[in-house]
Design brief:
334 residues, alpha/beta, Rossmann fold, 7 strands, globular
Length: 334
């Protein structure tokens, strides 16, 4: 067996300095392969850099999927083709091309409970993450609750902006229960803002015609639903629930361990707040800089401002000597 070539400490240091340290894992094998096949230096460099690009793209897709809140197990490769359900395969192939995202179209996934609506919607989300799109997955009740809570801490604009601007928004289990007036307004704004501007996937047990009764306001419901459904593909899933197959069972050949299982340390920090609140807290750098500049400007202005004069606001409707060039009652502002 041919020994792998040794990478010098100097080369290791330079690669790490250039943030290419991950190349070192496969570099000896690539060098050995190049020697056996008589590759030129350019061909070797192309393979090594190609490996790094693929690794970075895979890592970026995994980060996007994690940020989106997608279930890592719900990917197309794990879809059980033996499930007793049916849907339009041609339509799903069109959706898997992701052209609907580029065209800012919606998708409504309808079907009975347990037929895989969430699975297929999540699988499309994973596919979008792999191809560079930013995705956000939320249950409908959690989205509405987050928007309701955001009114209390004045973060609603930030939350709504995130919901309206993400490349692909996936809302799961929509229209399970009736919405309040504020929730109806939130859904109306969300539907109107995203239609024609960004793609949305909604899964629901109810047909779009039944969504109207879930709104508090009939006019808002008609306007929102009409806009949304006429800009959406309808993926109908029929069949039996798949969840009975997932019911845990005792396998005779699988004996229980002699001692109870100990909880393993989590490799990822627990998330105490919803993903939307976390995203809302990440104020863009430009906004932070603008806020700091505004604070510095206000602080400077308060130091340069002369003491308030004794004139009344009516007398100070024109410029006075001590407040020049301030006009009117502005000098009374602390």
């Amino acid at each position: 067996m041919t020994a792998l070539p040794t990478i010098s400490p100097e080369l290791r240091s330079l690669l790490k300095h250039l943030r290419l340290g991950q190349i070192l894992d496969a570099l000896p094998e690539r060098i050995l392969l190049a020697e056996k096949q008589g590759m030129s230096f350019e061909e070797l460099l192309l393979i090594v850099l190609g490996d790094e690009v693929s690794r970075r793209e895979s890592s970026a897709a995994a980060r996007r999927a994690l940020t989106a809140g997608l279930d890592p197990d719900m990917v197309l490769e794990r879809w059980d083709k033996t499930a007793s359900i049916s849907y339009d395969k041609r339509l799903f192939a069109e959706l898997a091309s992701l052209r609907f995202i580029d065209a800012h179209r919606h998708v409504v996934v309808l079907g009975p409970v347990g037929t895989g609506k969430t699975f297929l919607a999540t699988a499309l989300g994973h596919l979008a993450c792999k191809h560079g799109y930013h995705v956000l997955f939320q249950r409908a009740d959690l989205t509405l609750r987050t928007l309701r809570q955001s009114r209390l801490d004045n973060s609603r604009d930030a939350v709504m902006t995130q919901l309206c601007t993400v490349d692909l928004l996936i809302i799961d289990d929509f229209a399970l229960e009736t919405m309040s007036r504020d929730e109806s307004r939130d859904v109306y704004q969300l539907f109107v803002e995203r239609t024609g501007r960004a793609a949305t996937i909604i899964t629901s047990n109810r047909d779009t015609s039944e969504w109207l009764a879930m709104f508090d306001d009939v006019l808002l419901a008609q306007s929102a639903v009409d806009r949304f459904k006429n800009a959406a593909y309808d993926l109908l899933i029929e069949g039996e629930s798949y969840r009975p197959k997932l019911k845990p069972k005792v396998v005779p050949s699988d004996e229980p361990p002699p001692t109870p299982v100990t909880k393993l340390p989590s490799s990822q920090p627990s998330v105490a707040r919803s993903e939307l609140h976390a995203l809302a807290d990440r104020v863009p750098d430009q906004e932070r800089r603008a806020r700091r500049l505004a604070l510095r400007t206000a602080s400077s202005a308060s130091q340069d401002r002369p003491p308030a004069c004794s004139l009344t606001p009516r007398q100070n409707s024109v410029r006075c000597a001590c407040c020049r060039p301030v006009v009117g009652p502005s000098h009374l502002v602390p």
